[in-house]
Amino acid sequence: MRLSSRPFPAWFIKMFAALGAALAGLLLASAAAAAGEPEVMAEVQLDGLRLRFGQPVQVAAQLAWEEGPNRRWVMNHPVASAARFPNGDLLISYSLVSDYYDNPRNLSGLQFSRDHGRTWSRRYDFVAEHQAMVYTPGPEGSLLGIPAYLYPVTPGEEHNFEATYTRIERAGARVVLEPQAVKVRDWPWPVAGKIGWGFYGADPVPGLTPSNRYVPLVFDGNALEVGGRLLATGYGMRKGDSQYRNVIFASEDGGLTWRHFSTVADATGLPGEAEGPNEIAMIQLADGDLMTVFRVGSGREWKLRRAYSHDQGRTWTKPDVLPAYSVEPSLLRAANGTLVLSSGRPGIGLWLSTDPRGERWQEVDIVQLHDRWAPDRTYRIGPDAGPAPAAGQPDRRHWHSSSYTEVIEVSPNRLILVYDRSPKPQPANHADLTRIFALPIEIVRE
User: Fold this and answer.
1) pLDDT confidence of residue 189
2) What is the CATH number of domain 39-445?
3) Angle at 421 between CA 418 and CA 425, to 5 degrees
4) Where are any strands of DSSP class E within 256-301?
5) N or C terminus: which one in the chain shows less Cβ crowding within 10 Å?
6) Is the pTM of this model over 0.90?
7) Where along the chain do its domains lie?
């Protein structure tokens, strides 16, 4: 039999290629399901990037409740955070107390995952923090929880502080707490002696919160091993000031003793109504430089700022302005070099950059993806009905999320984004729950 040498028609080649791509997609989906990987909910094509989103995994769901003398709604601001143990297991933490510092205690819930975030354990309540701790790898496969809050070693002290040392061992099976073991020594400027969050309302109620001991100097963000020392981000307020400044803490003994290493940015150049540089995240770039991204206010009009260090964190460039906004940024450099930034308020945004220094960013609207998936209104994040604000104006609608996020890499180029859905200003009924989600994301560079 003689075979024809005539070429196949172009339409036939296109049809065959399309059928092949569809079959390959079905095979990949089948393999992923067999491996227990999350089903792909959506694909988003960006310039040079393709993102595959799995369905959100609900980690926790809890009815909010009123607490404290001012009857604050708890779980409306859960401050969700996440970390990866050296063995690959995951941790998610979230606050179980009021966000207004008139509650009688600080307490966080923690949940663990042994399968890259597909399923999560029951809740455990054993970390005495409200604001998320800074989690970083510790000895023998543990996670060190660098405490958020610092307290003066004696009443009225303005330069030396202490807090509890927390080490989570064996992927959560054992927790070591050492009261007063974390020391911050010889701070170079006097720290303000009372709470600096004036926009949250009145000072703490005497007898409920240690208002004579609490100071606005906190660890916040993340920590990196740089130049043989551990560097951690945070912020504080100098005595007499009304705006924050970002700082870098340094430890030479694995996170027990800390000292001031550098100031990233103060409020220079910001308007008087700005909070000042506070919530912050830091990564090391491919060329060895450090890059920080930080908050200066709350709302779409308050864009995040960014600064670089060329000398391992000792000095920092003048901050520039990013398109992303506004609170608690989370930042990472994926295995393929993509820079990933999550932030929000209003809403939740994922920002990505394919250039090595983050000069250009592309946004994905996470709320749009989430609400498209949401089975009913008690899962939705999007704002209540009302007119959208004009450009540059505050958004006064209720967005049902604190917009605090954490993005971590669970395996090369596979991430989870942790965020909350919170009924605001208060639950409508017993089905209107605060929910914590882990969203699977795969990043493919093209």
Assistant:
1) 97
2) 2.120.10.10
3) 140
4) 257-265, 280-284, 290-294
5) N
6) no
7) 39-445
